Sequence to fold (189 residues):
Amino acid sequence: MSSVPSASAPLPRSIDLPPLPAEAPEADLQDRRALRGVLGRFATGVTVLTAGRDTPCGMTANSFTSVSLEPAQVLVCVVKSAALHDTVLAEGAFAVSVLGRDQEWVARHFADHGRPRGAREFEGIEHAPGRHTGAPVLGRVQAWLECRLSAVHEGGDHTIFVGSVLGAGRSAGADPLLFHGGAFGGLAG
Fold:
């Protein structure tokens, strides 16, 4: 039977960690492609972030997570060069639409840098202005949230936006859209 050290017990001076497996050599952090490959091994859900009442814009993102239930907060990370970045800052609000497995085409559309911009960006995609923010909320999604921007943090070439949730909803639930290793997929089984 092992005992749990008390909170006041000193930490060990060194921890002997097993060596990394040979098939997982350390990545060169200066090589963006290698780093992207490492980070891509973490499976995520896929969302479309939107903002803008008068000139809506959107982008596919998998850097989304819950932060807190009390108060209800989420965070999204947006590359500073994205049109959505400045719109979130100007509007002080954004929406998150969590995509289902059958919406890969929507994820690809909002990831395409050559897509039309403004209202034309949403043509052919079911959506409605959010009740709380006016940001487009996509239809037939797994879940959606509307958020007021409550904090902004620097994050290298991205900005971390923390949003206070103003409204949220979810569907009965089909298979979620996942992203792993540079490819879209769904749950196995």
